[in-house]
What does this fold into?
Amino acid sequence: MSQFRFLFKQVVKARKNLVLLLIGFLIISGVYFYNKQQILNVRQYHQINLRMLEYAVEDLSEDTTICIENLKQKVDLSKRILSEEDMNLIYDCSIRSINLDLEEGIGNKPKLLMEKEYLRHLKTNQLEYDSYTHPISAISFTYWIMTDHLVFLVILSLIFILSRQFTFKYKNQVNIFKFISPKKNNFHLEIVLGVVMGLMILFIMMLFSFILSYYFEGLGSFLYPFLIEDEFIMIAQLIGPSFIVIFVLIMIVVIILYVLAMVFKDRNKVLMVALGLFLVALNIL
It folds into this structure.
């Protein structure tokens, strides 16, 4: 156990590792404020759409074959969406507007149906609006960024940290630890260390994501759904399986890095090969 503490302190005290965390925090902040901008753009879209509908109603003559009544309804619904404060009324107006688009065959039908289903879920569970593609409330944003971005940030961090940690014991292609403690096998200790470091990085970044989004938009709810293979599933049902998958992925990455360190016994070579494998995996995904 004392050897594990020594290895752990060695990783934690390295200042370069803190730089990786700071870079992660900057990326998370950038992603969060980008998401907030997308929510603002949705409101701007409704405002522009309202003006276009108003112009369309003015330009249409009474004998046109286009249904003026539907356009007038859309104008009224858009005004209510922009002015109402009661979320239930906003959801009702939005769903009615989508229904009108579906009746007229306007827009992407599968996308409209998904948006309609999402709005119904929000209304049924009495939830404030939060985009499922660019969430900003604390719980939704933290889960979303964990599965979409933090996994890759954690893997990259592990590549840089463990490529050094797993190879520093090799001097001139020889494992000097064998001379210090020839009877001890450090394999399990170093694998555990790598997994612990991966989970620590993940949870620190998740905590930062949660605090940042909570400060600006509040807690949110585990009832918010995410789109998984054309089906909306609540975060409460997704979070457990997601953690298990990420844990297994971290363990696999750590083992691969350890094997690469045993084969190449050089940090730069391990770093280059690991980054190459990471890029190949990204292209496959």
About this structure: The chain is about 75% helix and 5% strand.
